[in-house]
Amino acid sequence: MALAIAAGFVAPAMAQEPEQGPALKRNVNLVNLFATVRDKNKRIIGDMKQADFKIFEDGEEQKIAFFSKEVNMPITLDC
């Protein structure tokens, strides 16, 4: 189960590794974040709610504008 979280804020989008080239900076109104939440035994937790998440940018909490559970998305990372 993947959770789609859209944080509604204006913030510059930056490359994660600026030492590989110049950073790309843009002002955006909406950012989509996808998350798969697992417990310590790596089992997927499927009953997460919007109130269970907080999004921060540069130490400031950002508003979550939209929140939805997507059960048909093939997003899985085994680490």
Please render the helix and strand layout as text.
Blueprint: E1 2-7, E2 11-12, E3 27-28, E4 31-35, E5 55-57, E6 60-62, E7 64-70
Radius of gyration, taken over Cα atoms and rounded to an integer in Å: 15 Å
Poorly predicted regions are 9-18
* Spatial arrangement of strands, main beta sheet: 4-1-7
Quick one: biggest sheet?
Answer: 3 strands, antiparallel
Textual characterization of the structure:
By secondary structure, this protein is mainly beta. It is 0% helix and 35% strand. It has no helices and 7 strands. The protein has strands at residues 2-7, 11-12, 27-28, 31-35, 55-57, 60-62, 64-70. The strands form 3 sheets. It has a 3-stranded antiparallel beta sheet with strand order 4-1-7, with no helix packed on it. It has a two-stranded antiparallel ribbon with strand order 2-3. A hairpin with a 2-residue loop joins strand 5 and strand 6 (60-62). It is extended. The two termini are 16 Å apart. Mean pLDDT is 75; it is low at 9-18.
